[in-house]
Amino acid sequence: MRSLFVSTVLVLGAGAADAALMARITPNASGGIDIAFSGSDVARETGAFEPRPILSDGDAFLDVGDYVNSISATEFTPVAGSATISVDGETVGIDTIYVDDDAGGADDFGVGGDDTAEFELGVLVAWSGLLSFEIPFSAFNPGTYGSSNFGGNGDTLSFQLQVGEVPLPAPVLLLLSGLGVLALRRRL
Fold this sequence. Notes:
By secondary structure, the protein is an alpha+beta fold. It has helices at residues 2-14, 170-187, and strands at residues 20-27, 33-42, 47-49, 61-65, 74-76, 80-87, 90-100, 107-113, 117-119, 124-133, 143-149, 155-163. Strands 1, 2, 4, 5, 6, 7, 8, 10, 11 and 12 form a 10-stranded mixed beta sheet that branches. Strands 3-9 form a two-stranded antiparallel ribbon.
């Protein structure tokens, strides 16, 4: 039993080394979407998350993938929630997202804060929180997408975008199935 526990802990810990800024878009009860922000990465180039209305491709993740099907170069403000960007310990509130449906599946995604959040090479950039928007979920294509091209500067920050309900990760399923086997074994 101890070896099962140790194996499960090792498997669960294996995914923790993957660094990326992550955003997960899911439908909410009011017909709009929720975006959950999590994760961090160390900047490989300089850049900035700008406040609105300055948002553009210059401060967005470019060529994320074909995640949006009907929104072109539009900024949205949340109707509820709270999220922040932290750059080297300094925090800025996220108050805008930028969505751009580009031809050929190279859509862009950006966020803006209540102030500029500039980052330099080698600093830790993180974000967290949950925001709700009055954007229909049907405007998005379910799947997992990614980019590290922030603002056209090449490999700057790793970004992963998930659209849709996200299933439990494999390590969690492994843990749950192991616990089920143990419970069944104990009854016998």
